[in-house]
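Troubleshooting entry. The earlier prediction with zinc ion gave an output that would not parse, so I re-checked the input for stray whitespace and re-submitted. Clean input:
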Amino acid sequence: MELHKRLREAYPELRFLDKYNLLPPTVLGLAVYLFGGASALFIGFFLSTALLYHGTFTVNSLTHLFGRRRYVTTDTSRNSMLIALITMGEGWHNNHHYYMASTRQGFSGGKSTSLTTL
Ligand SMILES: [Zn+2]
């Protein structure tokens, strides 16, 4: 409980985003529309959001079916270079399941092979 309270006090920006979670996408959609009209809104907001979700769903489904398991984990997660290339490193899913606290997912023998760390 004390840790939770300290974390809330340490990150006021995260509390703001949690409270007003619709504000960032609304501002982005409005800004894109004002910048380029309806076609920019479609490409810069709706299409990009749909592609983002498809990338996330692809990682969370296909990398539990295909690829290599570098680390022994209690799940079926796998690393896929093809999906990592398409999703800028998110395809190193077995690495992610093995060490979830790391922002780097493409680690291997002390070398980074992920675009997420560039
Ligand atoms: Zn997973």
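This one parsed fine. The mean pLDDT is 88.
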